[in-house]
Each structure stands twice: as C-alpha cells, then as structure tokens.
Amino acid sequence: DNRKRVAIVGGGAAGMSAAYALSLCPGEFEVVLFERSSSPGGMATSTPINAKKYGASYINDGVQGGSPVFGNTYSMFEKLGCTPSEVGFQISFGREVGEDYWSNVFPAALLDQHKDSIKRFSTFLKVTSNPVLEPVFGLMPIHLSLTLFRFPKTFAEALVFPLVALFMGTGNQTPYVSTAIVERLFTDKSMRLFDYSKESFVNGIPEMRAFPCLGEVYRRWKKEVESRGNVEVRLRVEVTGMQRSVKYVDQSNGQKREGVKIYSRATLGTNNDQEIEGYAGAETEEMFSDVIIACDADAALKVLGKDASWMERKVLGNVKYLWDITVTHNDLGYLEKYYRVRFSDDLPSKKRLAEGDEETKKAVEFAKDNFNPLYYVRSYPEDKKKIEMSFDLTNYQPQFKGESPFGPDHVFQTIFLDKDGSEGMWTKSEIDKEKVIAEKWWKQQSHRWQHYAGTVPWMMFLNGKRHTYFAGAWTILNMHEIAVCSGLGAAYRLGAPYP
C-alpha cells in the first residue's frame, strides 16, 4: 500500500474540509481524523430547545451565518443537501438617541452629529488602501490610525468599533485590530459586507446567509467523508502528543519511511466549558506519513509539546485567546433595558425628515413595519471601547420563519466578552435565571495587530515542515469560510484536488 497515511487533529470546519478533499482520492490517501468531543463541527454546533414554547426545535450557537461571498462554505453545504437562507442584515447599535444609538435600517441623529467624520472616512479608506502603505497600516491598530487622521473618539467608539466587532467577531479587542483588515471590510469585494456611504456610513440592509442546522450539516459531512472508505472519523478521541521525523518501516509493504507518531486516547466527550469529561481507555500510538493540525494554536502547541520547534513556539504562541460566554435566553426585558428592540418615532433623524430627505422617509416607512434587528451591540458606559452583543435568533435563523413578532417567545443570545479583561462590567446577572435556556463558554482568538505581525505572515514558513500542516480560522481571521479554505489548502498541499 503506497498511500499516504494522514492524521488530522480536530474535527471543526478546517479539519472536516481537509478530510473531504483527501477523501476524493481513496487510491492516494488513508486518513484518520481525531476529534476529542462527541460530534464534529468545532464551534459550529446546534442546541435543542422547546419547540412548543419557542417555535423551533433547535438553535445554531457559536456560528450563526455569514456573508454571501463565503463561496467554499456554501458549496460544501450544497453538496451535503443543506441550503443556507437569505436574511436582511438589520442591526441596532446602542440605546440612547443622540448619544450612541444608530442603525443601518434608517438614519439616526448620531449620524448627523458625525456627518463630517463620516464624509472624511472615504479619504481614510483611500489612503489606507494604498498598496504602497499597506505594510504600515497592516501593523497599525485601528484606534491609532483613527487618532492619526484626527477622528473624534466618539466617532470611533460609537460607529467604527461596534461595526467592526460585529462583522469580524473581534469583541473587545477591536481597537487593536489591524487597520488594513478594517479597510478591507469596506473596500474588498471578497470580504466586505457593507458598502460605505458618505451620508449614512453604511449603505442600507445587506443580504446575509443564515446557516442551516449545523448539527445536521456536520452529521452529513462526517457521513460524506467516510463514504469512500479511505477516511475514518474518530469521535471522542483526543490526540495527546506526537513525535515527528520518526523513521519507521511500513508494515504493509516493508518500505522504510519517515513520518509522524501520533499518541491518542479515548475520551468521554467534552462539556459546555470545552473541557474533557474524562478518559475511557489507555493511550495508544500510530504512525502516519503526515499530520494536519486543525485545532486552535494553544491546543496545537500542547499536542506538539517538546517536539515543537523554536519558530512554532514563537508563531503559535503569539496567538492570544480570550474566554467569552454566551447566554441563550428569552428575557425580553433585558434586551429592552439595554437596546432598542422596537421601532419608535424618536429613533430616526428629525433633521433629515424636516429637510424632506426622500431616502430617509422611505427608510422610516420601511422600518415602521419591518424593523426586525438580527444583531444588537452596545458599549459599556465604564469603557466605551468595550462592548456586549446580542442576537435575536428568532429573527435570524430560518427554522423560526413564519413566527410573528407577537408569537412564541423570541430566543435571544447575549455574548459577554473577554472574561479576564471585562467581567467586572458584565450585566449577566441581570438576565432572569428562569428565562435562561443555555450557557456556553467559548475560546476566541484575538484579532489584535500583533496577530498580523507575529503569526499570519509566518505561517507559510511552518506549513510543510517535518510532515506538518496547520489549518484553522486562527491562521488568518475568525470566520467559518477561512477555516474551510485553510483545510482545503492543507489537503491541496498534500496532493488532494481543490474541490
């Protein structure tokens, strides 16, 4: 048997994408994917809820949806017979009129206050998108570049940071995100979701895609990759260590080879804190030709252990992780206390309406009957650079379609970010405990500028060394599409087709 024997560590979007590409060549690859939890998908999970009470039998948590440009993700979903749903991306930022409230559904008074800054932002985008200056702005955090261009602090905190945090999932690390990455969110056709507007900052309600039931997607994905007989997905098995560049004799043909020794152990699955519940057997070892490490950078370093090179320790060790907690609940009172959930006549810009602005009139008329935000974002009064986000899953996810605003209780999800740096400002205790459906901890990478200086550009020098390839959204940007592309890319480097 001259097939390459490939180990994949991690069954999230990156690992499953690599497994799919390698499964297309059963004559060339034999693959074992190790996943420590009881189901594949990583952060892309589904949770059952009371259908009679809420109007749907499950929610997607961790990952909700994505931009229409996520071509690889949607292509994979369609192969599996799972179709995403189109949804209008309505957002409600802040709460207090004239202080921090605005929306992309209609112009608010806050936009009038910052009209000069909004217009100047076009110059900012032109300068920061200049290829000659890209190395500079690639390493400059957005808070510093906005200060350099003399934008008011209130403009950054009320408009720029919440919008970027929402789209990139950067949370309280948003001020430290690379300026070049922020610029691309507005200008790059393959990344942008919003079109910049000199009048309203962002132009209208873009189309988003809400993901189908992710539990079902990944069940089908597992079945698909195993269907050709050359891929084995081992759930509840944790890779505990590895040795690379190991000389061994291939028992199938007697050939001398060099590869990777993988140590693994069966687990009892993981809990909501992403911790192993316990172990179900002794440690075993196996030989592989190559390994694709598709778990987070911290876990990768733990698995590599003493076998990690100096450069791997520096590059992967530079990835900073934060702990967030999501509270899924149906406490409408909490949402109404901190956000604007419903349209009211005091929200739109009175100035623009008085001036007879036709676009504003149309937007307001639309909002009167169709104001159904998917996302809510607010800044903490103690530190306006730090935020809290909430989702209305009933408005967002397709399984709730047909439920009226006055139907079953809406299901909300509120995310409290950065436990170590922000827990003192959290208002989590104010959510009615009787209305909490679920709580879950998530380990999230930081998108600080140091990530784009000390990790992203150096990954090319790690991949392919000592039979090792790295994949995962953390290698660039925390998006499902990036995870899928990185997994397909790792498999491609091993010789698999790019599907």
Automatic annotation (TrEMBL):
Which Gene Ontology molecular-function terms are recorded? oxidoreductase activity
Could you tell me the superkingdom of the organism this chain comes from?
Answer: Eukaryota
Q: Which Pfam families match?
A: NAD_binding_8 (PF13450)
Q: Do you know which PANTHER family this protein is assigned to?
A: FLAVIN-CONTAINING AMINE OXIDASEDEHYDROGENASE, PROTOPORPHYRINOGEN OXIDASE
Protein name (database record): Amine oxidase domain-containing protein
- In its UniProt entry, the species of origin is given as Pleurotus ostreatus (strain PC15) (Oyster mushroom)
